[in-house]
Amino acid sequence: MNTTTQEKYEEALKWTQTLLQIETRKEAQEAVRCFQHGRKIIEKKEKPFLLKVKKAFAKHKEACANLKSEVDKLKEEQDKLKEALVAWYSREKEKSDVRRLDAERVKVDDESALLVQKWKDEMLALEEMGKVEEALLLRENLSSMVEEERMSLEGARFDEFWSFEIVDESLIPAQYLQPDEKAIQKAVSSMRGVTSIPGVRSVRKFRSVISKG
Fold first, then answer.
1. Which residues of 3-33 are buried (b: 16+ CB within 10 A; e: fewer)?
2. Is 119 exposed, middle or buried (0-12, 13-18, 19+ CB in 10 A)?
3. Residue where a domain terminates, one of 153, 171, 202
């Protein structure tokens, strides 16, 4: 009776699981043979699936290329359009941040106008009482409400977020610096563990390289 690939796979799996605690050279040598045998079983079991994957990937790649050619140009122009919208909004936002409130020049609905007047009265009262910080906060809220009406667009919104630009790398605190692990690994490997990099120590490790057998 011929043993099927699945049966060989199950046997190899059980064999592997019995060798996970290696104490002697004999057990180590058996582990190598087990690994070589298991790799052959894996390759045989994978082969038909990999062929299907290869064909599917070729079709996927072709479909992606066709899709890209169909929509790529418009997507590029739409990205430019979004950038133009953001640029417009940024300019308007900068203007609103420095523009002083001019209630007579701004058109708002009746309800907003009442609220504006109420806040203005409260703001003047706070200023007379010497509560400058509270008055400034109220002014900011009032300005924000009026300016957002000017810049609102149907079907779009602008979410504020903060990014950064590095102006002097030498002034950046250590906790924000990312070690170049690839460069460190290259230096340690080339010097075979002898390194004088401050803050780094060499650690000797091993990895197994098993022949096909």
1. eeeeebeeebeebeeeeeeeeeeeeeeebee
2. middle
3. 153
Report yes or no on 22 lying in a domain.
Answer: yes
Q: Is 153 helix (H, G, I), strand (E, B) or coil?
A: strand
- Cα distances from 105 to residues 35, 110, 159, in angstroms, run 82, 15, 27
Q: Which residues contact 132 (CB under 8 A, 6 or more apart)?
A: 126
Same domain flag for 56 and 86: no
Name residue 207's amino acid.
Answer: R
**Of residues 5 and 107, which shows the higher confidence score?**
5
**Residue from 39, 49, 45 nearest 15 by CA:** 39
Rounded CA separation 185/156 (Å)? 48
Instruction: Examine the domain organization and report whether 93 and 36 are in the same domain.
Output: no
- Tell me the backbone φ, ψ of residue 153, rounded to 5 degrees: -130, 135
pLDDT in tens, 195-211: 778 888 888 888 878 78
Q: Find residue 153's DSSP bridge partners.
A: 156
**At 181, is the secondary structure helix, strand, or coil?**
helix
Residues 87 and 133 in one domain: yes
Task: Select from 101, 105, 106, 107 the least CA-distant residue to 119.
Answer: 101
The answer to the question of residue 89 being in a domain is: yes
The pTM (predicted TM-score) of the whole model is: 0.46
- The answer to whether residue 33 is domain-embedded is yes
Counted domains in the chain: 2
